[in-house]
Amino acid sequence: MPQRELGPQDYVAMLRRRWLLIVGLTIIGPPLAYGVSRLLPPRYKSQTLVLVSEPTVSSDLVKPVDTSDMSQRLASMQQQILSRSRLEPIITKFGLFPKDAATKPMEDLVAKLQKAIEVTPIQPMADTHANNLPGFYVNVTLDSPQTAQQVCTTITSMFIDENVRSRRGHTEGTTDFLAQQLTEAKTKLDEQDAKLAAFKTRNFGSLPDQQKNNLDLLTGLTSQLDAATQALARAQQDKSFAESMLSQQLSTWEASLNGGTAETPEQQLAPLQAELQRLQGRYTDDHPDVVKTKAAIAALKKKIADSQNPKVADSEKIVKPNVEPTQIAQLRAQIHTYESVIAERSKEQDQIKQQIKVMQDRVQSSPIIEQQFKELTRDYQTALDFYNDLLKKRDESAMASDLERRQEGDEFRVLDAPNLPDKPSFPNRLFFALGGFAGGLGLGVGLAYVLEMQDTSFRSEADVENILQLPVLAMIPAVKPMAAKPLKVSVKAPPPNRNVSVGART
């Protein structure tokens, strides 16, 4: 039969008709659930609170090596501690699950113990803006309160030991790794240092920091070359002048030996004085040519003065005619001296030219040398920076390792020791009773609703109109007849197109 939309009055009518069923099931539910809770074996929960204390030394002073999130570390330690290799000795030590030990394999016992152990992290407060895990609870639920307390104590100790071991192992492993890397970095740094030293030795004088010095030396050598060139020119002029004087003296002396006419000292003096006037018109009195001409004029004047002295004249007459005069010997000595000076100046000029060539080669090769030097310096600086960075990290890791050995870093601290439960945590009989009450009430309401939905009786005028799709013209109250057979009454309604008979059941 198609259902119509039910209203509040319909539901109230249903409750009135089915209240006995609902009340009965509601009353039976709590005692039944309580009785079931009495039949279940009790289980006891031992709980402990472990806090994660902050490091006593600031991380700004000693940077910790292990910077992983505490929640991730706790999850990792939980997987390790709750593994079969760690839980199987606990099952054997405390004799857990004696009823199942003979019939079930160890894998099932380990899985049962894993379900009995619960690790619950404590979430940080929202107003503290802290990301670190403040602590966690360890709960162990077993059949015996003493066993639950002992197993909870053991599991808590395993968490503390595992935390210390993992942090120490991590810091010591990091320190050893950095020490190995530092040794390799030092070897590479020594290789780069040797290459740089060999390059400096091979290209000494052409390095970039010596370029300015090379330019200064090149300028100084150029000045020295100019001075040597000028000195060489003066020596050559002096030699030419001395050779001309020697030639004149030799011609005069040879003429005197042959008895021929020769120029007298007075005759030689005139050209020299004319030459002196010409030189003085062009140069100063300190010019070498002027000085030498003056010296030659002074020597001729002395010779004229000596010729006028009778004693000196007589002494000159006694001299053998085949011996060269003193002036000629002096001129020869001067010429020899000038030749030595010219040889020295020429040698000095060649040496300076050679040095200038070396300096020019250094200056010209400076760009290539500078590029190679930069490459070597860059590689050396990179190796040095890498070595210093590893050295700093190794020292920081060693300090962090020492800090972990002293247990002054992050550590687990047991705030509440595992308690000895005085009452079972399961089953909770009050909870079971309330559950039975709620279950009975729900079951009663559900059964009443199902029965009402299956009932096809007409209860009201709306039911008739909903089923027959016809309006009701009149309502006949229920009358109990004398006979056992119910009275049937037919009511005919005058519809516009057809006649419909409605039967009322009393």
Question: Your description of this structure?
Answer:
With 506 residues, the chain is of the alpha+beta class. The chain has three domains: 1-40 and 427-476, no CATH class; 44-181 and 412-416, Bacterial polysaccharide co-polymerase-like, CATH 3.30.1890; 210-389, Helix Hairpins (Orthogonal Bundle), CATH 1.10.287. The protein is built from 13 helices and six strands. The protein has helices at residues 8-39, 70-81, 84-94, 98-101, 106-116, 145-202, 211-257, 265-282, 288-308, 310-318, 326-405, 429-454, 461-468; strands spanning 44-53, 117-122, 135-142, 411-416, 489-493, 500-504. The strands form two sheets. It has a four-stranded antiparallel sheet with strand order 2-3-1-4. Strands 5-6 form a two-stranded antiparallel ribbon. A hairpin with a 6-residue loop joins strand 5 and strand 6. Helix 1 runs antiparallel to helix 12 (429-454), helix 3 crosses helix 5 and helix 7 (211-257) packs antiparallel against helix 11. The chain is rod-shaped.
Secondary structure layout:
Elements: H1 8-39, E1 44-53, H2 70-81, H3 84-94, H4 98-101, H5 106-116, E2 117-122, E3 135-142, H6 145-202, H7 211-257, H8 265-282, H9 288-308, H10 310-318, H11 326-405, E4 411-416, H12 429-454, H13 461-468, E5 489-493, E6 500-504
Antiparallel strand pairs: 1-3, 1-4, 2-3, 5-6
CATH architectural name of the largest domain? Orthogonal Bundle
Main sheet characteristics:
4 strands, antiparallel
Strand content: 5-15%
Shape call = rod-shaped
List the domain count as a whole number: 3
Key attributes of the depicted protein:
single chain; 506 residues; alpha+beta; Bacterial polysaccharide co-polymerase-like; Helix Hairpins; 3 domains; four-stranded antiparallel sheet; two-stranded antiparallel sheet; 6 strands; rod-shaped; disordered C terminus
